[in-house]
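Hey team,

Filing this mostly as a record. A colleague (T.K.) asked me to run one chain through the structure pipeline before their review meeting, and I want the input and output archived in the tracker in case anyone asks later how it was produced. No errors, nothing strange. Just documentation.

Input sequence:
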Amino acid sequence: MASVAERPKADTSITMRLPVQTRDLIDRAAATIDKSRTEFVLESARQRAIDVLLDQRVFHLDAEASDALADVLENPPAPVDALRKLMASKSPWE
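Output structure:
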């Protein structure tokens, strides 16, 4: 478990209402891995948020679009300033 000095500063809160059974389930799971309810919920929600954002990278193409994408990947255009800026930026979860 991270020490207090290692944790990022918490500067906002989330309040929610949930069924007692759900809270109890979360508490049992958190206790199983020696985490507090807050740590467990925060870690779980953060991981799910990352997964959702990363899932946006998966897309399906028909044969024509797939060929066009393959062509662009094999013959990429020269990078422009907007691409350089994007590649230098942090991911939303960093």
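Quick notes for T.K.: The chain has a mean pLDDT of 89. The two ends are 20 Å apart (CA to CA).
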